[in-house]
Amino acid sequence: MAEGDKSVKATETPQAISGTLGSDAAMKLVAEMLAGRIVNITPQYDFTNELGFIYPAVEQTLKVKGKEAVAILESLAAKDIVNKSFFDRFIRCGRCQSPHLRPSAHCPKCGSGDVVRGRVLEHFACNYVGVEDEFTVRGRYICPRCKMELRTMGTDYRSQGVLYKCRSCSEIFSVPFLKWRCLKCSSLATEDEVGVVIICSYSFNESKRNWLEFELQPKVRFMEFLRQHGYEVTENARVQGRSGAEHYIDILATRDDGVVSHTIAIGIEIARDRIGLDRILDFDVKAYDSSIRNKLLIIIPGLSEEAQKFASYQRIRVLQPEDLQAVLTGSPQPGRETVKAPFEFKSKSQLIQYLEKKGYKIQENSEVRGRSGAVHNMDILATRDEGIITHRIAVGVEVAEKPMGLERIFDFDDRAYDAGILDKVLIAVPGLTKEARQFAKRQGIRVFEAGQLEPTAEENPKP
Ligand SMILES: [Zn+2]
Ligand SMILES: [Zn+2]
Ligand SMILES: [Zn+2]
Question: Rounded CA gap, 29 and 38, in Å?
Answer without folding.
Answer: 8
